Amino acid sequence: MxxxxxxxxxxxxxxxxxxxxxxxxxxxxxxALLMISPDPLSTEDIMQELNISRGNANMNVRDLIDWxxxxxVHKSGDRKEYFWAEKDIWKVxxxxxxxxxxxxxxxxxxxxxQLSNVKGDRNDKxxxxxxEGISGIKRMATNADKTLETMIKAEENWFFGAILKLxx
Amino acid sequence: MxxxxxxxxxxxxxxxxxxxxxxxxxxxxxxALLMISPDPLSTEDIMQELNISRGNANMNVRDLIDWxxxxxVHKSGDRKEYFWAEKDIWKVxxxxxxxxxxxxxxxxxxxxxQLSNVKGDRNDKxxxxxxEGISGIKRMATNADKTLETMIKAEENWFFGAILKLxx
DNA sequence: CTAAACTTTCAATAATATTTGAAAGTTTAG
DNA sequence: CTAAACTTTCAAATATTATTGAAAGTTTAG
Lengths: 168, 168
Hints:
Chain A is mainly alpha-helical. Helix content of chain A is 70%, strand content 7%. In chain A, strands 1-3-2 form a three-stranded antiparallel beta sheet.
């Protein structure tokens, strides 16, 4: 397999993985492309490599920047903007975890809090099942939140080293 | 807030969370409904509570069974099938992690393995960036895999207790 | 076996999400 | 300031994914 084929396959695979996890396929592909590019790419480069429109390229790059995964780079003597992706996969992972926590977990925690004070007969098994279900989920979500927080602060090697030793 | 309102809100919230993580909104809603139902529900019950068609109810229940989150229950003297969901949120979490690992992470690991042997000039920075990018991701994915494996085997309290102590 | 009760399938339809491309907006060189 | 170079926006078009409902399939009581 040569480089061009490899790149193509990787971009495809990353896009598929992303889409299964609720991330726009194209956004994941742009990310993949930038991850394996040693130098920053322009919007034109991205459009060409992925065969997508200018608007699409622009939007997805902007989203990647919002996610903290990509940065704008300016080359001196050039008016174009170039884009560069964080390549340390550990940083990428923690950044994604952080964002998803903020965007998707925290809102649910808020709703769960409100749901804890449902009024009703404590002897009604429906009420009981509801309250117990909610509180279990809340406990879980709170722990997940704490674990994630800590992971985000931890360094890659230290974290995995410690975890793996602990769990060997 | 009374029980009916609470249920509705929870089902909505769970559906939204699911859809953001690439899980069919309705599947997540059926799951939510069953999670807070003390007794098993029939297809009819589900159709009525969620206002969905028979086919839709059937398909999503079947998917939940495939994911190992829901079981068929037979009531004696009744030909209908009833459905019951695992309510221990820890078991739910590990089961989901297990399935997603199998369905979505492992296929990517396979592709990454093949991509490691891209032919090309090692001095070409494009080749270098590609090979390094891939190997970093592979390392990460393998570690995630191992960590997940262990989590799956661990018991809820023990796991979180250990993690929290370690990371205090 | 037969018919009623129930479950599953799947082509057509509807809903949702993504993409395009041209127009509008912005920045900067001269 | 002006025009060229570049970026952003967004309504319309496309593509993807989910849902319906009726027909086909299956199971079981009698």
